[in-house]
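pipeline stage [seq->struct] | target=Cell division ATP-binding protein FtsE | organism=Galbibacter orientalis DSM 19592 | residues=227
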Amino acid sequence: MSEVILELRDVAIYQKENLVLSEINLSISEGEFVYLIGKTGSGKSSFMKTLYGDLPLTQGSGNIVEYDLRTLKEKDIPFLRRKLGIVFQDFKLLPDRTINDNLLFVLKATGWTDKNKITSRIDEVLTKVGMATKGFKFPHQLSGGEQQRVAIARALLNDPELILADEPTGNLDPQTSVEVMKVLQDINKNGRTILMATHDYALLLKFPSKTLKCDGSKVFEVVQKNV
Ligand SMILES: Nc1ncnc2c1ncn2[C@@H]1O[C@H](COP(=O)(O)OP(=O)(O)OP(=O)(O)O)[C@@H](O)[C@H]1O
């Protein structure tokens, strides 16, 4: 049995006083690739935010990469996020510095000091996403797909146990989406667990995998033909 990386029991998620999702019971094990789908406003982002500590868990119980979401303190959040690689729809690269310096910024902020190790880690993650020759460029000099690959590389820097990707292809054209998806699939094949929120049903058909759906304030697993 592979290790459980995320487990939620009887969880309800609120935005302010509004109930967004309730009675969530699910678990994700090491090595899985899981989609989270649902219409706009169905609660995908709220769900993801709860997992990385942006929305406090106030009802039910939740464990993620060995953190208890219910008792998570403000000071624990940076440490939780080191064990998670988070990828957003809008890339969130720092526009005023090169790709290498974007990655350097994260490594320094997470305690890396050895220059040789830093250089080789940056090279390693950029190679993984096929961007090894572009480290000297600024974000605006890259296409959307390339920026997203860099954002994925950044998420890999600290060897996360789980990657949370919130609409990672949301700003990309269909062909570029497939390329970014292939990068995520490769990373998953190398053993990394990935939870990806998306409303891109074409991707689901092309790369079928376990699928959770947010609908009518519930989250449930669906079989592909019912997506
Ligand atoms: N900061 C907030 N304050 C109050 N309500 C919010 C906030 N963020 C989201 N909501 C509400 O919570 C519900 C779920 O929103 P959420 O962003 O999680 O959905 P989503 O499925 O990710 O949608 P999308 O695909 O458009 O991002 C919506 O009704 C939304 O209006």
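stage status: PASS
auto-comment: Residues 15-16, 18, 20, 38, 40-46, 199 surround adenosine-5'-triphosphate (CB under 6 Å). Residues 126 and 133 are 8 Å apart (CA to CA).
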